[in-house]
Design a protein that fits this description.
Order of helices and strands: EEEHHEHHHEE
Strand content: 35-45%
Oligomer: single chain
Strand order of the largest sheet: 1-2-3
Number of helices: 5
Radius of gyration: 19 Å
Distance between the termini: 14 Å
Helix content: 25-40%
């Protein structure tokens, strides 16, 4: 049986806030933020989604690296700004001047990872597989 959980994040990394929910309903809209991941309101250790899920599931968390490859920084911009959710949403929300500025900086960033005839940026992600305890 496969069960899922979701984590929703709003805002930037430092000041944003999120909610964690599990299919079983054990957690439904459990709030978390940068601060609660690392420290609670009373200054003690905080809780993170891995700990919350780990209480109810046997978790296998592994880190992987996948290369993001394109012919150029421009090609990466074209792909990411039209097909990759977060970048697409950000790019579409900007006025033309700010979008063009993001475009230039984004393409230049990826050109910094040029390897011969292509740009290749290693991207790290976590794979989480869990089985419900008892």
């Amino acid at each position: 049986m496969i069960r899922t959980s979701t984590a929703l994040w709003r805002g930037d990394g430092l000041h944003g806030k999120g909610e964690l929910s599990t299919q079983s309903g054990v957690f439904k809209g459990q709030p978390y933020s940068f601060q609660t991941r690392f420290q609670s309101e009373d200054g003690k250790a905080g809780t993170n989604p891995e700990e919350l899920l780990g209480a109810a599931f046997e978790l296998d968390i592994s880190e992987h690296v996948v290369p993001q490859i394109a012919a150029s920084g421009e090609a990466m911009w074209d792909l990411m700004s039209t097909a990759y959710g977060p970048t697409k949403v950000l790019a579409s929300s900007l006025d033309p001047e700010r979008r063009e500025s993001l475009h230039r900086e984004f393409a230049a960033f990826f050109e910094g990872y040029r390897d011969g005839d292509q740009v290749c940026l290693p991207r790290t992600y976590l794979q989480v597989i869990g089985q419900r305890r008892g």
